[in-house]
Amino acid sequence: MASTLTNRKAASSKASSPAPTVVEENVPKYLVPDITVKDLLGAIPQHCYERNFFYSSLYVLWDFAWLGVFLWTASTYIPKITPENVNLPHPALYKVARGAAWLFYDFCAGLVGTGVWVLAHECGHQAFSTSKFANNAMGWILHSALGVPYHSWRITHAKHHAQTSHLTGDQVFVPKTRKERGLPPLDAEKENLEGTKVSLDLQEIFSEALEDAPIVSVLWLTAQLLVGWPLYLIRNATGQRSYPRFTNHFTPKPPLFAPHQFTDIIISDVGVFIWLAAVAYSIKTWGFLNVFRVYLLPYLWVNHWLVLITFLQHTDPALPHYQASAFTFPRGALSTFDRELMGGPGIIGKITGWICATATHGISETHVAHHICSKIPHYNAWEARDAINERLARDGIFVQGNPGTWSEALRVIRECKFIEDEGEVRFYKNAQGKAARVPVFSSEGVSDSGVDVQ
C-alpha cells in the first residue's frame, strides 16, 4: 500500500511539474545534393585536366627563387640596422628593429614555403605530371624538405578525398559527437534532433559544458595552428577516434596502411630522418639561433597556414557530415568550402587575398574543384572552379565560404562544438545546442503532383 501511494505521489509530482520552455528557431534548410559525378566532371573544360611537368616545375623554381630572394635580402640588410647606418631614437630599438625584420622574413618565407608544400601535395595527387615516377620523386623531395612523410600522407590523404565528411571514413577533422563530449542524451521533450528546438534550461546546461572563454578559444586555436599538423602525423590528432591508440603516419601497419604499402612508408620515414639529420647538422654548423630564424620559424608558419587552410575548408556550422547510408562521393566533395585566404572587403582585403592566393597557388580558393578532381593542376583549377560553380548554381548549390582569416577560424571554433550521435546527415551544433542548417532530401516535402510544398 505504501508503495502504491509513493508511486501515485511521484506521478502527481511529475504531472504538476512545469513543461520546459522550448525555444524554436527558423533555421535555413540544406538540400542534400543529388548531383552525379558525371555532372560535376562534365562541367569542367577538358583542357583543365592537362598536366605538364615542365610547366609545373617552373612553379617550383619560382617558389625557391622567392625564398632565395627573401633570405638574401634578410641576411644582407638586416645586419645593417646599426647606429652607423640607421638613426633610431634609442639604442635598444636597433635590436628590436632587427628582430622585427627577421620576423617579417619568417612570415614571408613561411607563406611561400606553404606554396612549396602545395606543389608537393599536387605530386601526391599525381597532378604535377603525367609520369608517376616524376610525381613521386618530386613529391618525396619537396615534402621531405618540410618534414612530411610523403607516401604516408599521400595514402591517408587519398582516403580523405574518397570519403570527405564521411563520419566513419574520413581521416581528419572528424567531429566529436554528443556522447564523446560527455553531454546528456537527446531529450525529445526539451530538444529535437535537428537543433531547431532547445529548451532554455538545456541551453544553460550546454553552455556550462561547452562554452569556452574567449581566451581559451584563442589559446586552443594558437596551439592547433602551431603543432596541430605534426600532432596529426605523430598521434592522429583530429583523426578517426575509432583507430587504436598510437596510430601514426610513421609505422607501416593498419589501420592507416596495408601490408603492400610497407616499402612506401619506410621510404617516407627515411625522407623525414634525412630532414631531421639536416636540421641537426645545420644547428651544429651555424648555431640554433641562425637555423631558428632562417628555417624553423618559417617551418612553423608553413604548419600554421596548412592547419588554418584545411581546418576552414572542412569545418563550418553550414557544412554537412554524412553517415554511411547517406554518403556519396559528390556529397562529400561538396561538403567543403572555397575560401579567400586572408581576403576580405575593401582594398586591403583584396590585396592580402591576392598575395596569399598567389603564394599558396590557390589551394584555399579552389578547394571544391580540387575535391571533385584532385588530378587537376593548380594552374588550371581556377577555370575549373568557375565552371563548376556555374553548374552548381543551377541546382542552387553554393560553396563559397567566408574569407579564411584568424577571426573566421575563431568564430568556427566557437560555433562548432558537437554533432549528434544519430542522423544520416548531421551539422555541428553550438554551445547552446543549436544547429545552423537542417538537412532536407530532395524527395521530402514534395507532393505527388510534383509541386514542392515546402
From TrEMBL:
Keyword Membrane: yes
Alphabetical GO biological process terms: lipid metabolic process
InterPro entries given in the database record: FA_desaturase_dom, Fatty_acid_desaturase
Pfam family, one: FA_desaturase
Domain Fatty acid desaturase: 102-397
Keywords annotated in UniProt: Membrane, Transmembrane, Transmembrane helix
A GO MF label: oxidoreductase activity
Membrane-spanning segments: 59-78, 99-120, 215-234, 262-283, 295-312
Entry-linked PANTHER family: OMEGA-6 FATTY ACID DESATURASE, CHLOROPLASTIC
Name of the molecule in the record: Fatty acid desaturase domain-containing protein
Taxonomic source organism: Tulasnella calospora MUT 4182
